[in-house]
Amino acid sequence: xxxxxxxxxxxxxxxxxxxxxxxxxxxxxxxxxxxxxxxxxxxxxxxxxxxxxxxxxxxxxxxxxxxxxxxxxxxxxxxxxxxxxxxxxxxxxxxxxxxxxxxxxxxxxxxxxxxxxxxxxxxxxxxxxxxxxxxxxxxxxxxxxxxxxxxxxxxxxxxxxxxxxxxxxxxxxxxxxxxxxxxxxxxxxxxxxxxxxxxxxxxxxxxxxxxxxxxxxxxxxxxxxxxxxxxxxxxxxxxxxxxxxxxxxxxxxxxxxxxx
Amino acid sequence: xxxxxxxxxxxxxxxxxxxxxxxxxxxxxxxxxxxxxxxxxxxxxxxxxxxxxxxxxxxxxxxxxxxxxxxxxxxxxxxxxxxxxxxxxxxxxxxxxxxxxxxxxxxxxxxxxxxxxxxxxxxxxxxxxxxxxxxxxxxxxxxxxxxxxxxxxxxxxxxxxxxxxxxxxxxxxxxxxxxxxxxxxxxxxxxxxxxxxxxxxxxxxxxxxxxxxxxxxxxxxxxxxxxxxxxxxxxxxxxxxxxxxxxxxxxxxxxxxxxxxxxxxxxxxxxxxxxxxxxxxxxxxxxxxxxxxx
Lengths: 260, 294
Hints:
The complex is a heterodimer of chains A (260) and B (294). The two termini of chain A are 30 Å apart. Helix content of chain A is 74%, strand content 0%. Chain A has 11 helices and no strands. Chain A has helices at residues 8-24, 27-45, 60-90, 93-99, 104-133, 140-152, 155-167, 173-187, 199-204, 209-220, 229-258. Chain B is an alpha/beta fold and 294 residues long. In chain B, the strands form 3 sheets. Chain B has a 6-stranded mixed sheet with strand order 5-6-7-3-8-9, with helices on both faces. The model of chain B has no long low-confidence stretch (mean pLDDT 87). The interface between A and B is medium-sized, with 29 and 35 residues.
């Protein structure tokens, strides 16, 4: 029998388009993902944007741009994967999708592409805003380094999103994400430099994935960091491995309950 | 090669046996209704055939392949019970999306028309009513122009009008020579659509025949009357094959209606609105699935 399967590329293109529209049309996700980093930048970053960071030549405006890039991209990864997985499980859409000839890998890939496009969009909005409103000046190679580090460094958060999506219910996913994400973002020094945080938090923060992620971004714009870039990547790789292991475990648990 | 096949399939959920050694063979072009009360094992049978569940023992095959094989799934359209679709996509968008999963889909307009959703093509899924949503699931099931269509309780939650229109849509698809496997507990649906009815009860196939054969298997006459405060005990010893008491309405199936009536009057029971008629598929179904309490 000829032409037994649908061609993969149009399938991937259609699925990616649908995944994107699904997120785009939920303002609670799309508007907050795009606008919140800018709102934070306005409230926290602009007022002191020309002040210099202790022991360096860069301004707080530049430092805070790196912080918000990390905040924005990790936010997109955790929310888009966590909440969409939890929601689809909740309405049993996963069951219907399993009965279609859509290859699971195409499904997964379409979501990754969508999340990366969304993450890139947040940067496309944030970068010009920081340049105009915060007087940030970086050369081309610094913009590039910041962008690729922030995108590549988000992989552990994709895994974390999946893990949350499979472990929490459709109604609790948002709460779980907020409960994990906001406090660790503060504790990692994304909103205020770590030196201003309580001492006990300061001792914990080097072990937080968002802190390591932030270090990569701060280093990219020339801010001083506590460890080498290689160390930060190593930490993030370890977190990625750990979160993927949890996500895989949660996924298999679901499989054995629902589809065996 | 059969389109879909269960071979001595048993399915256990923990201690509960949902299917017990079921063998069903569905040929291409057949329109089959799986009939049975809730929890009889209909949905489990479909789930095994679609690879959504794995048999505890035995085999499930689609076109002779493992149901999880994408080559098999590409020839199958599915409508499941209460399976959601993204609320923020438009009807035409999601139909196009599902069309892209299949090698030879039908035109989008045709799929939407088959489901009677022409005037809702541009609407978001979240704006659809329950019945419209159900029709959207039908559009998604047929849009790939599948050789086999699985419909699990397709008309559940619809009003009488909606159900009738929906049955016509399914029948229209059947006229294309496609295989249809539907589960239902509405007997008239099975009678209208299917040439073959498989009755499943408590995880076992208890009948597999044409609707007419199934009707003839059971008692020929139905005795129906109204009575107040009647209990099973009052009907003890009557020559009936099935009894049902719902409120004041009492229905009996029997081959000897005269004898039943004589006995009812002899016992001096207060009855009204007496009616004797030929049994239909519904009666047959009741007779088949009524469990002798002793």
